[in-house]
Amino acid sequence: MTKNELLSLVVPVYYEEECVLEFIAQTTAVLHEMDVRYEIVFIDDGSTDQTVNLIKGKIIENPNIKLIEFSYNHGKQAAVSAGIRYAKGDYLIYMDPDLQDPPHEIPRFVEEIEKGYDLVFGVRKEKKDSFINKLYSKVFWGTLEKFTGLNLPRGLAVMRIFNRKFADIFNQYPESNRFIEGIFMHIGLKQTNIEVEQQERFAGKTKFNFKKKMQLAVNAIIDYSNLPLKITMRVGIFITLLGLLSLLSIFIVKFFFIDFQTGWASLASIMIFGFGLQTFFLGIVARYIGSIYKEVKRRPHYSIKEFNNFEE
Ligand code: UDP
Ligand code: MG
Fold first, then answer.
1. pTM of the model
2. Cα(228) to centroid of ligand 1, in Å?
3. How far is CA 7 from CA 26, 40, 73, 108, 215, in A?
């Protein structure tokens, strides 16, 4: 990076009072060492703990720190999108404040992107996490890849660096249902990965429990694939054929005057099965309609309560 170029860190925070000061201490130490022009853009996603006050305190000491406050919780995807929109850097690094991605890797990311890439992803050497969490991740990413057809690098870390060109394209994605990883992959351009050491969360708890992760997966699938709709249709065709076959066989059996007993219990089970399947499929279609509904309203992706230390 040249002397005039600016490096932006984009950092979403949500109830991170235990991590944020340590994060600022570690990143600013690395950035000062690197001797670059930088800004750290925090996006508070509606925390009501000390997170915002702690950051505001730091802004007084360090004018390179900036803060966007959302009026309430809009979700990490919206927070990151806002950060990328308002960061001014020639290069942007997106990372979480929980120190799972270590700040001392920042120089390596910068070095790598200067080789002429548009995006450099971090991939985990080994995820330091519980067995259950690792299993979640495996199922989550595996399912996503199957359904979306996106080619997602294994063990994707949060930390990544991209250039202005990449950020400008990212900002053009208009969708309300924002699945960040999907958008990153969809942009394409010249990408590479580097391996990074993963650390334990510095303090506090993860905000993504199993339910939230599943919701994210369903949203991502609905946004990136119409495979569920195709499956619905295929199963429909299969069942119709099965019904026809069954009808035909009854006619044939009757034709040969074989007396055969049919019972209402089996009939009821078949009907219940059929109704269940229909309702389920209707549900899938409804999810897509819901998604379309959200999209056509074209609502802003977030509402900002306050900009701190941004000159407009
Ligand atoms: N986060 C956010 N809004 C939310 C939930 C989380 O901005 O509604 C932020 C959170 O502060 C953290 C990041 O998203 O910076 C990732 O969250 P976390 O570390 O809890 O997830 P994990 O690393 O366990 O997947
Ligand atoms: Mg984390």
1. 0.81
2. 28
3. 16, 9, 27, 13, 33
